[in-house]
Amino acid sequence: AQSVAQPEDQVNVAEGNPLTVKCTYSVSGNPYLFWYVQYPNRGLQFLLKYITGDNLVKGSYGFEAEFNKSQTSFHLKKPSALVSDSALYFCAVRDSRGDMRFGAGTRLTVKP
Amino acid sequence: SAVISQKPSRDICQRGTSLTIQCQVDSQVTMMFWYRQQPGQSLTLIATANQGSEATYESGFVIDKFPISRPNLTFSTLTVSNMSPEDSSIYLCSVGVTSSYNEQFFGPGTRLTVL
Question: CA-to-CA distance for B13 and B88, rounded, in angstroms?
Fold first, then answer.
């Protein structure tokens, strides 16, 4: 069955530093991978996706993600973190039925 | 992207009662889904709302507890029946198109507290 894992419950970075939020996946067939962000008291917002093509995918708010097939990873990155990036981040994968399955989430805190 | 609204945005309910949550989309969409997000946890798919037919429920969720309607391509309701404190969660409506390539869009959620 398709699944994603987010090994870190919490990531803390200082403003201006690069950030990485980790995600690994397990799929049969081609992986369709997604990142979402959830700000406090808000719904989920789509950030970016990997379907095929370039391994480096660029998305909203300056975020990007790198697809690594050999390591079955899809880590979310940003070169310079902002305090306003503090939120809950979810990695997700489409399963064979087309349903979206979410990781447990990683809470990112960016300190000034 | 689709604009999705949910009503109510939050509610506090008594044990044993039922609450119906509405989801309205500003455009016709193929797929509509209902998710539950329990406090501090990830999203769990409850069911896929099918237009003109019964919803497709995930393992652990049943129609008697979570009846769903979808009368057209822009509207769906989820009812949480005979509520208990364990039903306290955020309930999220989501929409998408029939393709694994495409992302889903989410409503703002309904925060439910059951006393």
Answer: 9
CB B110 within 8 A of CB B91: yes
**Mean pLDDT, rounded, for B81-110:** 89
- In the DSSP assignment, the letter for residue B101 is T
Q: What part of A 49-88 touches B (C-beta under 8 Å)?
A: 49, 51
Instruction: Quickly tell me which residue has 């894992």 as its tokens.
Output: A5
Most B CBs within 10 Å: which of A39, A44, A48, as the mutation test of the B interface? Answer: A44
Segment A6-62, tens digit of pLDDT:
999 999 999 999 999 999 999 888 889 999 999 987 789 999 999 888 899 999 999
Angle, CA of A44, B38 and A50, to the nearest 5°? 35
Q: Give A61-65 contacts, CB < 8 A, sequence gap 24+.
A: A61/A37, A61/A85, A63/A35, A65/A33, A65/A35
**A58-90 pLDDT, tens per residue?**
999 999 999 999 999 999 999 999 999 999 999
